[in-house]
Amino acid sequence: MAFRIYNTMSRTKEELLPIDGKQVRMYTCGPTVYNYAHIGNFRAYMFEDLLRRYIKFCGFEVVQVQNLTDVDDKTIRASIEQGLPLKEYTKKYIDAFFDDLAKLNIEPAEHYPAATNYIPEMISLIEVLFEKGYAYQSDDGSVYYSIDKFAEYGKLARLDREGMQSGARVDQDEYDKDNAADFALWKAYVPEDGDVVWDSPWGRGRPGWHIECSAMSMKLLGESFDIHTGGVDNIFPHHEDEIAQSEAATGKPYSKYWMHCGYLVVDGRKMSKSLGNFYTLREVLDRGYTGREVRYELLTGHYRQSLNFAFKSLDANRAALKRLDEFSAKIKEFIGSETEADELPVWAANTRARFAEAMDDDMNISGAMAAIFDTVHAGNKAIAVNPTPGKEALAVSNLWKELDTVLGLLVPQEEEISLEVEELLEDRTVARAEKNWAESDRIRDALAERGWTVKDTPEGPKLRKL
RNA sequence: GGUGCGGUAGCCAAGUGGUUAGGCACUGGAUUGCAAAUCCAUGAACAUCGGUUCGAAUCCGAUCCGCACCUCCA
Fold this sequence. Notes:
Elements: E1 4-7, E2 12-15, E3 23-28, H1 39-57, E4 61-66, H2 73-81, H3 86-103, H4 119-131, E5 135-137, E6 143-145, H5 161-167, E7 183-188, E8 205-207, H6 209-221, E9 225-231, H7 235-250, E10 255-261, E11 264-266, E12 269-270, H8 281-286, H9 291-299, E13 307-308, H10 311-335, H11 351-360, H12 365-385, H13 390-407, H14 419-433, H15 437-449, E14 452-457, E15 460-465
Helix pairs in contact: 1-13, 2-3, 4-6, 4-7, 6-7, 9-10, 10-13, 11-12, 14-15
This protein binds one RNA strand of 74 nucleotides through α1, α5, β9, α7 and β12.
């Protein structure tokens, strides 16, 4: 059994073999905290969540770093517009980001470095690049990276440098750069930056975007680490530039594997702030959907495929989750007070192997979910004929808990049944025994108001969360 | 122009030479005081045209269509 992942650098699936053998160090490009993240952004964070969870399922340790970009054009502009200090402005969106992660049941990373706390590291890195001849200062005071000096520039994105020239979307006249494609390491202060400024050996200013990730990743994970992730739109220029900076500075390989997820699209178009076709998580939740339903949506499409977002698929997810929940509830009833697990019943015997086989293949989540649903189906069929012994049911329950360490949506939250609801249920049972249907239906409505649906079965009434 | 990713049933979505993927919806049945919910059953597909093969959704060639990246982007 080996976990194979698609490495953008090699464009092939490779077995995940951590550099140090047991611990996987991964770096994830995080949000720019100038506004609420939209669910397209969370698609990437969801992919990274699945990745770190499955790496752990495979028996490795994980150290994940996700940065917070809290200084750039957008954060500066917005904070000045609102008359707030930069830190105060970004704090609101940093808090919102963590709220949203929790609602989606995304496991926290081990480190969330904010760019503004790593300015000295960035400056040191730029100094090394100067020493080694990769950086130069232009007349406007900004410091640039000379991509001509790095022979391997373009190896991740597989750029055709000639083709780029004819693409000609390069703004030549604005800056005094040796090569139009050179990128900024340090941006000289301009009045529009307000009081957002740091001293450096090259004068006052602020860091460029790409240097952040190089500085923070290497500081927290070491000069060479295992996996670098992001959306496909980060491949170029951001990740290409990170490689150029980091490998030029250290002379060592930067990230061993590069993994990129596809877009979330709406009506066939990429969801993005600039197109305006985006939803924030809170907008979706305000429409009455749960974080778990959104999680199901973002998780169950293969991460490298683009995923079409539509409210009607959230409705479909609700039905699918209900099927899973009904199964879980049924299993729980069979367990009763049993505390010792037995062997798995035959209908669940190969579920784990099927699940792992699919996930091992570059996280084939569809195959993994098929293993889950096939088990539900086979289990329902078997249970309809013969009740499952409590010890076997407990084994199934344990299996589901284990698989849910990866999926994060299989096992429903335990719902406390309030005393009031319990009393209503008893009253209704009495009314039904007396064939007082009007009263029985009235209580059923009352239960519905409190969020519970009651189903009458041969074994008596059962409550389910609406 | 360069570089990638795609087109699978009503919708979503795996699979990549032969055996029912899966989910949602539809329809039928079981169950029920009536419901709701649930469970069971069930049909239907591989963009187009050629080729290779005993056999192609899968391999090869051509064509059509969609999306993305090419210095804000997850």
